[in-house]
């Protein structure tokens, strides 16, 4: 049997490099990338994408759209790691654990859009709770997340690891205009009726994310508390391989969250921190922005799609 041909378009960025690293020793597929001299040749790129079985696009949004326009071969399947198609209804959202049957939909899809790093954590926390009716879709959601500097791509890596690294900031909050491009993706796939407030930041560590969502119990139904929220998440992800919910007693014993604890994996850990005295609950997600937040998720989606290749 001829192994399927997988073409990575844009294998020199942080996500593309990590995907290549994860796939290069696989014997069940044939990995293909363009040599340096051909990477910017539109004709050569079009030939490559139309000759493969599955293309993984690791490109800026506009370049990803342009790549899609060159596909003439109806047999070509695509995983797009950019944000160009994440809210498009004719693309399958590549978060296998977010809903029942989503893994099967990805396995059979022709077009899969890889989730953004921040949305993976936010949707992973919020969607099950909204679907269960524990959080109303009108809840005024606020999200804060801190990512490693690799989340900025090459620019972030160069700033912190290049010649001027001594002057790199230790921490910086950005997106102050509250218009981050991931916000519509979070709203759509979490099932929120209104736009959440999303405030991201970068820290002086290479990779990893801590994302938090605070909740006020007074805005929820009288029978909803930290235990109910935790039970819902634990039940939703009970059979998941890559998403784990920390037991409530263990989360209550924690004093801090380490954004780097799952680096190098495709796993995500969710936690619930209730404060009964004040009627507050904090939801958290910890994962690798280059793992479950990018390349790990792309490979997970690829593996699902290969089952139907």
TrEMBL record:
GO terms for biological process: L-arginine biosynthetic process. Its main location: cytoplasm. It is an enzyme of class 1 (oxidoreductase). This is N-acetyl-gamma-glutamyl-phosphate reductase. SMART domains: Semialdhyde_dh (SM00859). Signal peptide: none annotated. Catalyzes the NADPH-dependent reduction of N-acetyl-5-glutamyl phosphate to yield N-acetyl-L-glutamate 5-semialdehyde. Its EC number is 1.2.1.38. PANTHER family: N-ACETYL-GAMMA-GLUTAMYL-PHOSPHATE REDUCTASE, CHLOROPLASTIC-RELATED, N-ACETYL-GAMMA-GLUTAMYL-PHOSPHATE REDUCTASE, CHLOROPLASTIC-RELATED-RELATED. It comes from Caballeronia mineralivorans PML1(12). The active site is at residue 117. Keywords: Amino-acid biosynthesis, Arginine biosynthesis, Cytoplasm, NADP, Oxidoreductase. The keyword Transferase does not apply. The keyword Nucleus does not apply. Belongs to the NAGSA dehydrogenase family. Type 2 subfamily. Residues 5-106 form the Semialdehyde dehydrogenase NAD-binding domain. It catalyses: N-acetyl-L-glutamate 5-semialdehyde + phosphate + NADP(+) = N-acetyl-L-glutamyl 5-phosphate + NADPH + H(+). One of its GO terms (molecular function) is N-acetyl-gamma-glutamyl-phosphate reductase activity. SUPFAM superfamilies: Glyceraldehyde-3-phosphate dehydrogenase-like, C-terminal domain, NAD(P)-binding Rossmann-fold domains. Pfam families: Semialdhyde_dh, Semialdhyde_dhC_1. Pathway: Amino-acid biosynthesis; L-arginine biosynthesis; N(2)-acetyl-L-ornithine from L-glutamate: step 3/4. It is found in: Cytoplasm. One of its GO terms (cellular component) is cytoplasm. It comes from the Bacteria. InterPro entries: AGPR (IPR050085), AGPR_dimerisation_dom (IPR058924), AGPR_type-2 (IPR010136), NAD(P)-bd_dom_sf (IPR036291), Semialdehyde_DH_NAD-bd (IPR000534).
């Amino acid at each position: 049997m001829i192994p399927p041909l997988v073409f990575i378009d844009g294998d020199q960025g942080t996500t593309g490099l990590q995907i290549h690293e994860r796939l290069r020793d696989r014997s069940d597929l044939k990995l293909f990338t363009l040599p340096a001299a051909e990477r910017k040749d539109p004709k050569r790129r079009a030939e490559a994408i139309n000759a493969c079985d599955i293309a993984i696009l690791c490109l800026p949004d506009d370049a990803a759209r342009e790549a899609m326009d060159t596909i003439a071969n109806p047999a070509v399947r695509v995983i797009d790691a950019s944000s160009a198609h994440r809210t498009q209804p004719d693309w399958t959202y590549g978060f296998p654990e977010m809903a029942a049957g989503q893994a099967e939909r990805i396995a059979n899809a022709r077009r899969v859009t890889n989730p953004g790093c921040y949305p993976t954590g936010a949707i992973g926390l919020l969607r099950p709770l909204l679907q269960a009716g524990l959080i109303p879709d009108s809840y005024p959601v606020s999200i804060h997340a801190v990512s490693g500097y690799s989340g900025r791509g090459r620019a972030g890596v160069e700033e912190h690891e290049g010649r001027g690294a001594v002057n790199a900031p230790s921490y910086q909050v950005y997106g102050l205009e509250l218009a981050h491009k991931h916000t519509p993706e979070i709203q759509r796939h979490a099932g929120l009726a209104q736009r959440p407030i999303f405030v991201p930041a970068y820290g002086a560590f290479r990779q990893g994310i801590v994302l938090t969502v605070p909740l006020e119990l007074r805005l929820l139904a009288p029978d909803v508390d930290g235990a109910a929220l935790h039970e819902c998440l634990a039940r939703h992800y009970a059979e998941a391989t890559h998403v784990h919910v920390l037991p409530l007693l263990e989360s209550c014993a924690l004093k801090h969250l380490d954004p780097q604890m799952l680096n190098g994996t495709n796993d995500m850990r969710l936690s619930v921190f209730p404060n009964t005295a004040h009627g507050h609950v904090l939801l958290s997600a910890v994962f690798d922005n280059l793992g479950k937040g990018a390349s790990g998720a792309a490979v997970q989606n690829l593996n699902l799609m290969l089952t139907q290749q």
